[in-house]
Amino acid sequence: MKMYADERREHIYTYIKSHKRATVKQLSDYLSVTEATVRSDLRRLESENKLIRTHGGAKITDNLGSNLNFSYRLTQKHSEKHKISRHALKKIQPQQCIMIDASSTTYELAKLLTETTMELTIITNGLENAVLLKENPHLTVLVVGGFVSQDSNAITGNIDSQILEMYHIDYFFLSANGFTLENGLTDFSLPEVQLKKQMVKESENVIALIDKSKFDISSTLSFAKISDITEVITDETPSNKWKQNVPFSLTVAP
């Protein structure tokens, strides 16, 4: 089946993100397209700040991969992320303390929470999430690093990651760049991975919001083993190996 250009570029980006680098020939063979087509796609992806072209190929550095254009990531798999987040919202009960990471998937959950009338405490390491959530007067919003004022975008106070030890966190909703049975949940950025490890440790329930494209892809750094995860919510049933002898619940959002 013929692949549209944007789909092809998404496959190229996903491949390089997984392998950290690739040659034009590797990508040409992988997608069964000409090397000229691959070079054109790499130029386009570089112009969008998604990768760095090299002699004969392209790469993604740790820093580029971790900060890759948040606004761009918000546009990718949007309907899948919304469906997953809508199902995740059903788990939350009034008066709970929940935590959400800084991923584009949990940003969809944050958008849904802007409409809630439940009284909740929400801890996040995502400034975009915090700025969005602070507009809801039913929510007490904290960021790792300080409080977010409801009257402005300022982060005030001097609260570091030790704040996590002070709260009983009912649910930690998070996503990742990749998810494998061997390495668990993985990501690119060392500082964020270090923080996520502590966030996982301090949470009673760890709920991973993972669209199907992230299964069987591993990034550089692991921050949660599969034994750390309470439930995985996804948009589509993954391969059979994910249904056998896993220590977490696997839910496909309707």
Write a brief caption for the model:
Keywords: Lactose metabolism, Transcription, Transcription regulation. The protein contains 9 helices and 15 strands.
Topology, please?
Elements: H1 5-19, E1 21-23, H2 24-31, H3 35-47, E2 52-54, E3 57-59, H4 62-67, H5 70-75, H6 78-89, E4 97-100, H7 104-113, E5 120-124, H8 127-133, E6 139-143, E7 146-148, E8 155-156, E9 169-174, E10 178-180, E11 184-187, H9 190-201, E12 203-209, E13 221-224, E14 231-234, E15 249-252
Parallel strand pairs: 4-5, 4-9, 5-6, 9-12, 12-14, 14-15
Antiparallel strand pairs: 1-3, 2-3, 6-7, 7-8, 10-11, 11-13
Helix pairs in contact: 1-3, 2-3, 6-7, 7-8
Describe the model.
Residues 5-60 form the HTH deoR-type domain. Keywords: Lactose metabolism, Transcription, Transcription regulation. This is DeoR/GlpR transcriptional regulator. Pfam families: DeoRC, HTH_DeoR. It is a single chain. The protein is an alpha/beta fold and 254 residues long. It has 2 domains: 5-60, Orthogonal Bundle (Arc Repressor Mutant, subunit A), CATH 1.10.10.10; 77-252, Rossmann fold (3-Layer(aba) Sandwich). The protein contains 9 helices and 15 strands. The chain has helices spanning 5-19, 24-31, 35-47, 62-67, 70-75, 78-89, 104-113, 127-133, 190-201; strands at 21-23, 52-54, 57-59, 97-100, 120-124, 139-143, 146-148, 155-156, 169-174, 178-180, 184-187, 203-209, 221-224, 231-234, 249-252. Strands 8-7-6-5-4-9-12-14-15 form a 9-stranded mixed sheet, sandwiched between helices. A 3-stranded antiparallel sheet has the order 1-3-2. A 3-stranded antiparallel sheet has the order 10-11-13. Helix 1 crosses helix 3, helix 6 packs across helix 7 (104-113) and helix 7 (104-113) packs parallel to helix 8 (127-133). The radius of gyration is 19 Å and the shape is globular. The relative contact order is 0.12. Residues 151-155 have low confidence and may be disordered.
